[in-house]
Design goal:
The chain has helices at about 30-35, 55-75, 75-80, 85-90, 95-100, 105-130, 130-150, 170-185, 190-205, 210-230, 235-260; strands at about 20, 25. Strand 1 (about 20) and strand 2 (about 25) form a beta hairpin. A two-stranded antiparallel sheet has the order 1-2. The protein is elongated and about 85 Å long. With about 270 residues, it is an all-alpha fold. The longest helix is centred in the C-terminal third of the chain and has 27 residues, at about 235-260. It is built from eleven helices and two strands, in the order E-E-H-H-H-H-H-H-H-H-H-H-H.
Length: about 270
């Protein structure tokens, strides 16, 4: 029997079970109990401080890259299956979200979006925590599709039948959220303001860029960023959950109302000229 005793509980502990302490040694049971009782380090916005890589950000990037490769190797079949256009969104509502994981075949599109995600995602994931960051990204992606739907102009407009792809709506949501998080935590947000202004302006001057999706994602990201960053500490979880649910419901209602108004007195079409 070992005559070395744990400095915390006083029980004898064998050499294999001894753990160095500030004074003497402790047994593994006391070390485990102390680690459970230790206060959890949290960020300024209440998220648990985690070491290691930004898991959610890397997962999203991985899904986008895999999806882009599938777009290339399937000769566009993958894109046609998951791209979003207003005229198919009502029949295939999953497209509102899946379009955010598709990109143009040119590598410039995906490289730009993944770079923007990488410079904003890890910081937001650390500050907000994994579940709030995931909700922010996914709802901003939905907001981009809903924004495009609402502003497409109805069944008589070409945009109603024009497919859109890309994570830009979600990325603009991250821009809107990080702007508020930076201001809330007293950090300089000027770089994000300039980056946001430049990218938003590009949608008006270059063809093929869905500025409507940028605007939709930005609005959703700003709303969630406001709720997540400025929620009172005592009710932070309640406010965050309520805001997430409220924004999700608002997007569903906005899409439903748009379809009701768009097809009022007009037979739904299956495509241009269909």
């Amino acid at each position: 029997m070992s005559y070395v005793r744990c400095q915390r509980c006083g029980r004898p502990t064998c050499p294999e079970c001894q753990r160095p302490a500030a004074v003497g040694v402790q047994c593994v049971d006391c070390v485990r109990q102390a680690s459970r009782q230790a206060p959890t380090a949290r960020t300024e916005l209440g998220a648990r401080v985690r070491g290691g890589p930004p898991v959610v950000t890397l997962t999203i990037i991985g899904l986008c890259v895999v999806s882009w490769v599938l777009q290339l190797v399937t000769a566009g079949d993958w894109t046609r299956l998951f791209a979003f256009a207003p005229f198919v969104g009502e029949q295939d509502p999953y497209r509102f979200l899946t379009a955010a994981f598709l990109h143009a075949t040119s590598p410039v599109h995906i490289l730009f979006n993944m770079y923007a995600l990488w410079i904003t995602g890890p910081f937001l994931e650390q500050m907000l925590g994994r579940w709030r960051f995931a909700a922010l990204y996914l709802l901003s992606a939905l907001g981009g599709s809903v924004g495009y739907l609402v502003l497409a102009g109805g069944p008589l407009a070409d945009a109603w039948y024009t497919p859109v792809v890309g994570a830009s709506g979600a990325v603009f949501g991250l821009f809107g959220a990080i702007l508020l998080v930076l201001r809330r935590t007293g950090r300089n947000a000027m770089q994000i303001v300039v980056l946001l202004g430049i990218n938003f302006a590009l949608g008006f001057f270059f063809p093929g860029i869905a500025w409507q999706a940028h605007l939709g994602g930005l609005v959703v990201g700003a709303l969630l960023g406001l709720a997540y960053a400025y929620a009172p500490r005592s009710s932070r979880t309640l406010v965050s959950v309520a805001a997430t649910v409220a924004v999700a419901l608002a997007l569903v209602v906005a899409a439903w109302l748009t379809y009701q108004v768009a097809y009022q007195g007009v037979a739904p079409l299956v495509g241009p000229g269909g």
